[in-house]
Design goal:
Largest sheet: none
Number of domains: 1
Distance between the termini: 45 Å
Number of strands: 0
Radius of gyration: 24 Å
Shape: rod-shaped
């Protein structure tokens, strides 16, 4: 292997590294946006849960579904958002 081949390999590897860095930054931004959306859904489900607790006119089935959604989103936020930061 001569010096030119080594330099050429270095240039190729640098280009590949830069491409990977760009993709990684994109995935990080995308991941952060997804986390924001999940936290918003969790907050909304908590609000619905509180509203359901204070309103006796809501059907029991609806109240149960909201409680299940809130519990599920609580677990998702704890497992994937809070613990991974």
């Amino acid at each position: 292997m001569n010096e030119n081949e080594i330099l050429e390999m270095g240039v190729v590897l640098k280009k590949k590294y830069e491409e990977i860095e760009i993709k990684e930054k994109h995935f990080i931004r995308e991941n952060n946006e997804l986390k924001k959306h999940l936290i918003s859904v969790y907050g909304f489900s908590r609000i619905l849960d509180v509203i359901m607790d204070n309103n006796i006119e809501i059907p029991l089935e609806m109240n149960t579904m909201i409680e299940i959604l809130r519990e599920y989103m609580s677990n998702v936020c704890e497992d994937f958002l809070i613990l991974t930061q």
